[in-house]
């Protein structure tokens, strides 16, 4: 009797020691880290790197103040960047605690910027990302970008609308989900990629003339997580068509020597393996493009079957060209499968995939030996709200 | 011993042995009129409102007297129907059979003979007039209760936008009549109990025979009889005496001022308890989901009723948990707040000198003080207090930097939410529980809120109201009753009485009769 009561007492008291008010940190004492930049400062001998970690802490008082209010705060910056050097990121972040009165708090971390220098070192990128995957404070949805040049320079950029550059980059990529731009890589996706040792691309941000540009990507080899090259903005567009992520994007073509701009409504991609011969895999990549005309500089009647067909033909040609250029680049130059052809074999022909998995885009590199037949089918579904807004040259044509 | 409970149930005493009543006098009714009248005056302490009218029977020389207390009787009735009759010519009456004759003469329906002195005095004190006749040891007790009464008005505490505008009054006779007017059914029963040691109060237990589960009626009657109080001043005394658990923050009976609410509950198979002297009737048994129902849910169309009921559930959760969740998120789990909101909360709290728990406590206590002050003050003054308190204190506390603006929003929302509860007494219970949750959140964060919530649920699952589980129809799942719980199904689908009450006759309306 008595012992059961004592047990109950113990059960009631133990929870107090599991968590309690001594673990409490009020919200105003937290230093919210919303962006992190990682740069390579140099090597210390063999295999020992000197990393520079820059944390962007927000300044809540400046951030929540209405821009028009103006009272008191004035032109206070919405963020503070603090940085420290160390051979590991965790050590760097601990050292950073001396630099601010606030306790760094990573649960609201939005973006991680990694400079190209880091990715160029073999294996360093995955080592650097380890802390972001492992740490319990971090979310799995943190977006990872590569930067051209020093990553911490981007965190100094003062955007016009957002109060902090990290938020700007985060919003830039979320809000433009339907604008035909690359979807950023998230930390959880990267972990998956690292484990399966697959080649991948990471979208790149760069500062050009004090503007943040987000239209290209770097290619990273799955073997040692080392950067092997970049795709320029045209090639990135081709990559988008292969991945089916162009919705909302635009493509330009000429019709009767006048400019026509078509917005992508949908671009569905179907890839099939048509030849299973190891030495000569053949894929057929079918892109089913549907778009609407958004802009037309000419005066021709677009409602005619003939004009539409002509524009569609042009589009098919242009898209095919874009896609083939990208495929050629990743196949011949980089020999890294970032366009998901391996996935087609893995998903549809798993037995075959098991045999070739270690020779797909490395070793024998069947990937570079395979051929891809690109078929594009374009369909213009609408010419917009008006056929013409200008008078034709001649009446009654 | 082995069973440990946070809220020990009080075991109600079974029928007590005959209670000794100190007011009972040993004086017997005598045959001498003058002596009897003297005795009455002595017992009552010769009060000035005791009227003793001595006269002779009309036309004869037989002495008699009527005694009543002014203010408790209907004066017209006494003058016209008693005094006039007595003084009118009564020559033909045989004075020896006086009792029989008076039953024929006096024009009052409620009349009875008595020969016990103490009982006559009890009747006298409840408004009867007593007729004494010389040389007789029997008196006539004439039901002349009357006096000033409040007229039927719209209930103050339970105003509805749509619904009958009449509410109970202090007189239990009127209240019984109001229920009778709503339910014109021969099976409607009223059990009268006179309760109270020093002063008798009429308690009426009402139910509909054939619908209600008889064990509930038995239990209610048994508990009402067990009441051992000097004075039952309000139905609250009855409620507290007969409830199952006096430690629970939840009321186990609904109190209402509305006859239509009592009537609809009786038709569902519940028991109504009316207490003389108060407009508040009790409805038993009740469940938690019952307390969140308002009659207007049924008076409005079902979509509106359902939506409002869902809103009320949301309001209840907000009133209970919102300040606690605020404390937990701001002190422990900043990662769970959406990023932008986290930043603005952090900015708003910059410069606030207290931790969020103290901040929340300050505001909640201020609000409770305002609420209490507003409730006790005269109506128009109460409004002023509300404005001064709510607006001025809230605003200046923010600009003085004592609390953050978000805290004011949280507290205001909590206060408003707690008023969505149709029952005031349930609302008070939640105000206490809210503080409990806030302490739990301050110590353990969300973990503490969940612990406290589990504790609360254990308690509710344990609680019973007259044998009916308080968490019905959810915890013992009465799936058929769910259509009238969180949502209110169309009236055409609610043709059966709730099963959790185990009514004798389950089918509502005439369908039952058609079948049999």
UniProtKB/TrEMBL annotation, chain A:
Domain of life, source organism: Bacteria
Gene Ontology terms describing biological process: spore germination
Entry's family note: Belongs to the GerABKC lipoprotein family.
Record's keyword annotation contains Lipoprotein: yes
Entry annotated with the keyword Iron-sulfur: no
Signal sequence range: none
Location relative to the cell: Membrane
Location of the Spore germination GerAC-like C-terminal domain: 224-384
Membrane topology type: Lipid-anchor
Protein name in the entry: Ger(X)C family spore germination protein
Keywords: Germination, Lipoprotein, Membrane, Palmitate, Signal
Stretches assigned to the Spore germination protein N-terminal domain: 24-206
Single GO cellular component term: membrane
Automatic annotation (TrEMBL), chain B:
GO biological process: spore germination
GO CC entries: plasma membrane
Record membrane topology: Multi-pass membrane protein
Entry annotated with the keyword Transmembrane helix: yes
InterPro entries noted in UniProt: Spore_Ger (IPR004995), UPF0353/GerABKA_families (IPR050768)
Pfam families for the chain: GerA
Keyword tags: Membrane, Transmembrane, Transmembrane helix
Primary residence: membrane
Intracellular or extracellular location(s): Cell membrane; Membrane
Region (Disordered): 1-22
Transmembrane parts of this sequence: 310-332, 391-415, 435-456
Family to which the UniProt record says this protein belongs: Belongs to the GerABKA family.
Protein name: Spore germination protein
């Amino acid at each position: 009797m008595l012992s059961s009561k004592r047990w109950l007492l113990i059960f009631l008291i133990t929870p107090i020691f599991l968590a309690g008010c001594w673990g409490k940190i009020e919200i105003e004492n937290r230093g919210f880290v919303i962006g992190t930049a990682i740069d390579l400062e140099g090597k210390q001998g063999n295999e020992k790197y000197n990393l520079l970690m820059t944390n962007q802490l927000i300044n809540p008082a400046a951030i929540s103040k209405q821009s028009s209010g103006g009272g008191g705060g004035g032109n206070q910056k919405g963020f503070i960047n603090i940085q420290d050097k160390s051979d590991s990121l965790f050590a760097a972040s601990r050292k950073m605690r001396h630099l601010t009165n606030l306790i760094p708090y990573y649960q609201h971390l939005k973006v991680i910027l990694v400079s190209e220098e880091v990715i160029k070192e073999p294996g360093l990128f995955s080592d650097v990302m380890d802390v972001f995957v492992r740490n319990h404070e971090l979310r799995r949805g943190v977006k990872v970008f590569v930067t051209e040049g020093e990553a911490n320079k981007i965190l100094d950029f003062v955007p016009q609308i957002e109060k902090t550059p990290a938020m700007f980059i985060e919003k830039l990529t979320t809000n433009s989900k339907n604008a035909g731009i690359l979807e950023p890589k998230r930390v959880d996706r990267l972990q998956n990629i690292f484990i399966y040792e697959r080649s991948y691309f990471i979208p790149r941000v760069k500062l050009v003339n004090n503007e943040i540009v987000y239209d290209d990507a770097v290619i990273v080899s799955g073997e040692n997580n080392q950067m092997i090259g970049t795709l320029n903005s045209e090639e990135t567009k081709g990559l988008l068509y292969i991945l089916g992520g162009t919705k909302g994007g635009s493509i330009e073509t000429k019709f009767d020597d006048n400019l026509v701009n078509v917005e992508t409504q949908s671009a569905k991609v179907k890839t099939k393996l048509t030849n299973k011969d190891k030495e000569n895999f053949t894929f057929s990549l079918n892109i089913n493009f549907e778009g609407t005309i958004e802009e037309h500089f000419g005066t021709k009647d677009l409602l005619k079957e003939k004009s539409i067909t002509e524009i569609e033909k042009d589009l098919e040609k242009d898209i095919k060209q874009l896609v083939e250029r990208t495929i050629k680049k990743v196949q011949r130059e980089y020999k890294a499968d970032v366009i998901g052809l391996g996935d087609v074999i893995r998903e549809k022909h798993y037995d075959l995939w098991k045999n070739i998995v270690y020779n797909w885009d490395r070793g024998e590199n069947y990937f570079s030996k395979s051929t891809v037949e690109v078929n594009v089918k374009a369909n213009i579904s609408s010419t917009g709200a008006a056929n013409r807004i200008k008078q034709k040259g001649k009446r009654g044509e | 011993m082995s069973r440990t409970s946070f809220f020990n149930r009080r075991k109600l005493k079974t029928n007590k042995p005959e209670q000794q009543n100190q007011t009972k006098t040993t004086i017997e009714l005598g045959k001498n009129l003058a002596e009897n009248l003297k005795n009455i005056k002595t017992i009552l302490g010769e009060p000035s409102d005791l009227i003793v009218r001595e006269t002779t029977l009309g036309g004869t020389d037989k002495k008699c007297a009527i005694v009543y207390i002014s203010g408790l009787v209907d004066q017209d009735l006494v003058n016209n129907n008693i005094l006039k009759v007595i003084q009118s010519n009564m020559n033909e009456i045989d004075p020896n059979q006086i009792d029989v004759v008076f039953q024929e003469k006096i024009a009052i329906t409620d009349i009875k003979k008595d020969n016990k002195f103490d009982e006559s005095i009890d009747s006298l004190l409840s408004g009867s007039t007593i007729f004494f006749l010389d040389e007789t040891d029997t008196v006539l007790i004439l039901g002349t209760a009357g006096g000033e009464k409040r007229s039927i008005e719209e209930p103050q505490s339970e105003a509805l936008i749509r619904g009958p505008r009449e509410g109970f009054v202090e007189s239990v006779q009127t209240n019984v009549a109001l229920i009778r007017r709503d339910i014109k059914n021969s099976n409607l029963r009223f059990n009268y109990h006179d309760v109270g040691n020093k002063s008798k109060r009429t308690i009426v237990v009402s139910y509909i025979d054939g619908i209600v589960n008889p064990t509930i009626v038995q239990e209610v009657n048994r508990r009402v009889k067990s009441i051992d109080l000097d004075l039952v001043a309000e139905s609250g005394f009855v409620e507290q005496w007969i409830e199952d658990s006096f430690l629970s923050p939840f009321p186990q009976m609904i109190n209402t001022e509305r006859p239509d609410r009592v009537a609809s509950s009786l038709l569902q198979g519940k028991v109504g308890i009316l207490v003389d002297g108060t407009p508040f009737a009790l409805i038993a048994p009740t469940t938690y989901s019952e307390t969140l129902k308002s009659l207007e849910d049924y008076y409005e169309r079902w979509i509106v009723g359902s939506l409002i009921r869902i809103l009320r559930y949301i309001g209840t959760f907000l009133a209970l948990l919102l300040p606690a969740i605020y404390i937990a998120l701001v002190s422990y789990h900043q990662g769970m707040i959406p990023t932008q909101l986290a930043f603005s909360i952090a900015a708003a709290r910059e410069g606030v000198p207290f931790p969020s728990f103290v901040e929340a406590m300050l505001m909640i206590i201020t609000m409770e003080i305002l609420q209490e002050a507003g409730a006790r003050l005269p109506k128009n003054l109460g409004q002023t207090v509300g404005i001064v308190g709510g607006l001025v204190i809230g605003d200046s506390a923010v600009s003085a930097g004592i609390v953050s603006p978000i805290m004011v929003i949280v507290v205001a929302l909590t206060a408003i939410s707690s008023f969505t509860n149709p029952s005031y007494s349930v609302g008070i219970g939640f105000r206490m529980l809210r503080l409990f949750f806030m302490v739990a959140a301050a110590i353990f964060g969300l973990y503490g809120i969940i612990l406290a919530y589990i504790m609360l649920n254990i308690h509710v699952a344990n609680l019973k109201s007259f044998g009916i589980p308080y968490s019905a129809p959810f915890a013992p799942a009465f799936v058929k009753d769910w259509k009238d719980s969180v949502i209110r199904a169309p009236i055409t689908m609610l043709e059966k009485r709730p099963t959790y009450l185990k009514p004798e006759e389950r089918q509502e309306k005439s369908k039952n009769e058609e079948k049999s």
